[in-house]
């Protein structure tokens, strides 16, 4: 589906309950917007829509409001006239069964395809973010990355020629003309999962705003988040599983981790880049003196760990932690700990900002002020 926009937010607010996090309004509203489009603009019958379409999304039991997403989807679907539409959840509880998504009845091959496609998407998005600030012809990076995406998409739909499509995509990417003559500051975006990965109105087009101001975005990927979930499941299994079960689960999860890492590396190589995934065991060690890693929810300890890791590596000039208004795990927990991390690592600028779909001016003004300190060095 297309990136959620402000029209999705309006649909979400119209059919959702009050007091939800704004990713709920954007994502639930985006689904309703799409179904209404199929029904009213494409003339598809209700029966065809509920038979031929389903929506798969991440869910969880909390501890934050993420636990309410599934109910929100169902409420909004019922109230907007699609009561029988199927919403399937995969949870992030950390159980091995959930990592394997047995509830969806996926077989091993489907799971592998799922991981590979997520990785391709992540790599293409990251290339776009790294190239866009240096493109010679305005708009060319967006245009050609979109073309590369379609090349891969066509192969997926045709169910053949996937490797060839990747090489075609590489050629397309290489034709983007770049001028890296001017040095630009690198700004790392972290925070709540949806707000930090959205490249659109859901975070007030934060990435493009930073690029317009003369910065380059360093992003976090869905692959890295999935890798963290597998690491979390392995960490939990080490503590609670016994005997043969423990050995079996440790082996399965170690294999999944190796698969994610090596396939990501291979895909990066094919697409002509060399992006790195995080070492989650190392991140947990870095976070431990600041954050109880048993605390589970949102990004877990990852925001704090990434902050420390980036401060030590010195690869970025500033961190912007973006999250929906009153996000329980990011604003309420991680940002409390970040105060101490900022004290201990003062050389790296850190800014926490909230989004709620309105008041873009306040948001831009805060980002702008933080950014000035960094841009002044260039
Ligand atoms: S992580 Fe934050 S924004 Fe996302 S569902 Fe939880 S409380 Fe809401």
Salient structural properties:
378 residues; alpha/beta; Rossmann fold; four-stranded parallel beta sheet; two-stranded parallel ribbon; 16 helices; 6 strands; 9% strand; globular; binds iron/sulfur cluster
Which second-level CATH architecture of the domain at 184-221 and 279-378 applies? 3-Layer(aba) Sandwich
Q: Any idea what the shape is?
A: globular
Give a short account of the largest sheet: 4 strands, parallel
Low-confidence stretches: none
- Helix and strand run: HHHEHEHHHHEHHEHHHHEHEH
How far apart the termini lie comes to 39 Å
Largest sheet: spatial strand order: 4-3-5-6
Give a description of the structure.
This protein is of the alpha/beta class and 378 residues long. Among the domains are: 6-91, no CATH class; 184-221 and 279-378, Rossmann fold (3-Layer(aba) Sandwich), CATH 3.40.50. It is built from 16 helices and six strands. The protein has helices at 6-15, 22-41, 46-52, 69-79, 96-99, 108-131, 140-158, 162-174, 193-197, 206-212, 222-240, 243-271, 280-287, 302-313, 330-344, 360-375; strands at 54-59, 86-91, 186-191, 216-218, 318-324, 349-355. Helix 15 (330-344) links the parallel strand 5 and strand 6. The longest helix is centred in the C-terminal third of the chain and has 29 residues, at 243-271. It is globular. Iron/sulfur cluster binds at residues 21, 23, 64-66, 192, 298, 324, 327-330.
């Amino acid at each position: 589906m297309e990136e959620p926009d402000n029209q999705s937010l309006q649909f979400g607010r119209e059919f959702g309950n009050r007091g939800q996090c704004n990713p709920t309004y954007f994502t639930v509203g985006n689904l309703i917007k799409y179904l209404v489009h199929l029904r009213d603009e494409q003339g598809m019958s209700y029966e065809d829509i509920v038979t031929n379409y389903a929506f798969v999304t991440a869910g969880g039991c909390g501890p934050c409001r993420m636990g309410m997403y599934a109910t929100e989807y169902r409420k909004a679907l019922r109230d907007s006239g699609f009561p029988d539409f199927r919403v399937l959840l995969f949870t992030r509880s950390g159980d091995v069964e959930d990592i394997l998504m047995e509830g969806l009845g996926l077989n091993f091959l489907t799971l592998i395809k799922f991981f590979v496609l997520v990785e391709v998407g992540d790599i293409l998005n990251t290339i776009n973010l790294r190239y866009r600030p240096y493109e010679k012809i305005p708009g060319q990076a967006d245009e050609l990355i979109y073309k590369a995406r379609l090349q891969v998409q066509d192969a997926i739909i045709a169910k053949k020629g996937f490797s060839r499509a990747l090489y075609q995509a590489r050629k397309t990417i290489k034709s983007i003309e770049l001028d890296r003559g001017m040095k630009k500051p690198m700004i790392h975006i972290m925070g709540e999962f949806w707000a930090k990965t959205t490249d659109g109105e859901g975070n007030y087009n934060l990435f493009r705003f930073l690029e317009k101001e003369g910065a380059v975005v360093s992003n976090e990927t869905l692959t890295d988040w999935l890798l963290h979930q597998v690491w979390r499941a392995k960490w939990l299994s080490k503590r609670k599983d016994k005997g043969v079960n423990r050995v079996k689960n440790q082996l399965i999860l170690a294999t999944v981790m190796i698969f994610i890492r090596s396939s990501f590396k291979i895909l990066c190589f094919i697409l002509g880049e060399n992006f790195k995934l995080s070492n989650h065991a190392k991140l947990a060690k870095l976070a431990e003196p600041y954050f109880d890693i048993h605390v589970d929810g949102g990004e877990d300890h990852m925001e704090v760990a990434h902050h420390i890791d980036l401060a030590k590596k010195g690869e970025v000039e500033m961190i912007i932690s973006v999250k929906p208004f009153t996000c329980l795990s990011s604003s309420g927990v991680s940002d409390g700990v970040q105060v101490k991390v900022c004290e201990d690592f003062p050389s790296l600028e850190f800014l926490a900002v909230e989004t709620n779909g309105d008041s873009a001016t306040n948001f831009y003004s805060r980002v702008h002020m933080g950014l000035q300190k960094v841009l002044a060095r260039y």
